[in-house]
Amino acid sequence: MRSTDSPSPAVEPAAAAPVAAPAPGPVLAPGESARTVRLPGYSLLVRSRDRAPRPAGADSAAAGPAFFVHGLGGSSQNWSALMAALAGTVQGEALDLPGFGHSPPPDDGNYSIAGHARAVVRLLDRERRGPVHLFGNSLGGAVAVKVAAARPDLVGTLTLVSPALPEVPPQLTAWPTGLISVPGLPQLYMRATRGWTPERRTSALMALIYGDPALVGEPVRLAAVREYQRRLELPYFWDVLVRSTRGIVDAYTLSGQHALWRQAERVLAPTLLVYGGRDKLVSARTARRAATTFRDVRQLLIPDSGHVAMMEHPELVARAFRDLLEELAHRDGAAGTARTGTGTDAWTDPGPGTAAGPTSAAATGS
């Protein structure tokens, strides 16, 4: 795999030690902290939440570090609800991808999926955090697939929420987002919506990504309005959005070993796929193909969720992830018992192609 097509396996030295996030910094949930990590070519905002002590007698499996990658137009804040739901299970970190949230654009201006994946790899290598439980949503899901395929040493498990894997043809409600990549159309859109207030723009965005925008509380909506307004005032906002959208479209057209579905075939990590029945950007129909592509897979379909299940239904996603950890713990325990010769004559490895079914009642969203 060429270095221009996938994240580099080499460990990149840090240009400087992590420094405090610049003001005005990100909005942090209780229990969160943030810092800026400087790497060659990148300055990345990283949001952290330490693993909370578990109550005595708790039987949910504790795990190692988790790392979260947001989607197009998002930020690390998209993962705050899920990180809180998993606070008793993992120590979580989420980054703002280059050009998004509070991370400035990358030095090389590369917003391809491979470029974003390279930033993730360099950060994980810099902080020696692998293997991690890697989470990705939408664009971040495609980035996570790229990372898991190229650097299996960095990924313990993979959880994908509505991953942006190629769907041909895309559902009609996803076309307007894809058209952002067409030269001149973003300018036409801005002229046509010049009179829109930040509230109206935010409402349109929420109608696109949420299964039921009416369930969004007023404090969350107002915070989203303020954040949208802040981003619109950034001089590079539209350039980053357009180039990253083009990166997704370009990735959809790749063939051979660099195609995203071919990359998915190479993923060795146990994988949890989460889809929303009301997703207007990534159709739940792709779940069927994903189930036969990833080697070691289980799925969660939430019928009334949209594109951001980790924000809409964090407890359901957290439960499915904990079920995955429990499953792996039992599997490893059974394998260890078989290896020692207790209870069986020999240990039979089911192989990486074995697929697991839906995990618990959470698989139906109940």
TrEMBL record:
Keywords noted in UniProt: Hydrolase
All residue ranges annotated as the AB hydrolase-1 domain in the record: 68-314
InterPro entries named in the record: AB_hydrolase_1, AB_hydrolase_fold, Carboxylesterase_BioH
PANTHER family, per database record: HYDROLASE ALPHA/BETA FOLD FAMILY, PIMELOYL-[ACYL-CARRIER PROTEIN] METHYL ESTER ESTERASE
Chain spans, region Disordered: 1-33, 333-366
Stretches with biased composition (Low complexity): 7-20, 334-366
UniProt GO molecular function: hydrolase activity
Pfam families (alphabetical): Abhydrolase_1
Protein name: Alpha/beta hydrolase
SUPFAM superfamilies: alpha/beta-Hydrolases (SSF53474)
Taxonomic source organism: Actinacidiphila polyblastidii
Transmembrane segments: none
Lineage: Bacteria, Bacillati, Actinomycetota, Actinomycetes, Kitasatosporales
